[in-house]
Amino acid sequence: xxxxxxxxxxxxxxxxxxxxxxxxxxxxxxxxxxxxxxxxxxxxxxxxxxxxxxxxxxxxxxxxxxxxxxxxxxxxxxxxxxxxxxxxxxxxxxxxxxxxxxxxxxxxxxxxxxxxxxxxxxxxxxxxxxxxxxxxxxxxxxxxxxxxxxxxxxxxxxxxxxxxxxxxxxxxxxxxxxxxxxxxxxxxxxxxxxxxxxxxxxxxxxxxxxxxxxxxxxxxxxxxxxxxxxxxxxxxxxxxxxxxxxxxxxxxxxxxxxxxxxxxxxxxxxxxxxxxxxxxxxxxxxxxxxxxxxxxxxxxxxxxxxxxxxxxxxxxxxxxxxxxxxxxxxxxxxxxxxxxxxxxxxxxxxxxxxxxxxxxxxxxxxxxxxxxxxxxxxxxxxxxxxxxxxxxxxx
Length: 395
Fold this sequence. Notes:
Elements: E1 4-7, E2 10-13, E3 22-31, E4 36-45, H1 52-69, E5 71-76, H2 81-89, E6 93-95, H3 97-106, E7 111-115, H4 118-127, E8 132-134, H5 143-146, H6 150-158, E9 164-168, H7 173-177, E10 181-183, H8 188-197, E11 202-205, H9 208-218, E12 222-224, H10 237-246, E13 251-254, H11 260-263, E14 268-269, H12 272-281, E15 286-290, H13 295-302, E16 307-310, H14 334-343, H15 352-372, H16 382-389
Helix pairs in contact: 1-14, 3-4, 8-9, 12-13
């Protein structure tokens, strides 16, 4: 088990894990039209870590290249902290996947560099079809995306034509094009509740844990695709209970892509942004955080002086698949960011017909949000905030 404890911006690894240049990754690969679970295998590159001197030079080069190319860097909360810092200081954006795409759509820059995983670049292209979208590594993918191939998912939908198809943002452009609605976790629960109130039966894909969380909250009739996020799927309820005993005053912050026995122990269940807000605003000094380790950079900046404790991903002596950090998010580095700006390669393309069809479920969600969504604010009173956050889904 690897546990990171963050306090005052410093990190301490209780165990140092070996890294390889290329690593194999197992992920949930649904079988039998998505209703039962198998195992798929993929791979992820592990970027070389530059020296301190090389980092300084790379950052200077990236700043100059962003200016030269009139490009804007948009980064996800889960990528390396140094990429997040570069995005912030150069006028870019650090956010969840939808806000990244929304920022890119609304910004005047005609070149966007998306530091994240491939579906994020595709979503940015769908919302900004005439802009140039670059990524540090086009092979950076997602276990939820991999576990929901469009041909199989389309067959699954065709077998249940009476159901409304709702897909999570963590899917390919082609899967989005097959859907009626796309949701992020920050509004998925509200949309499903609205569909349920209208008597609609739902196909949900791809994350079974988030889908189960929403089904439990709404009572909706949901047929689940059995995918999962390899990071959040590894959080363990038993080990979390033991960790809570070590830190009895800590509040537990959980992303709802986590298993139900982890979600059940949460003081706050929420998206990446809402978990950061909770750490900042709730009256506690210690927080156990069950989501990707990448979030801890922004969370620590928002909550200086508070102690952030990573939730355990496996039992003692067990081998973890992700160790609480997405292996594909880790493929974004300073060197390949500088390289893509220099060479202008690794451009994201989405077939125009697919992009136009995929935009329909995205725009439905955005229109729904404009009509119904109110910003979730933490008051600092945990009893009240727990109710407030209980209706928030994952990012």
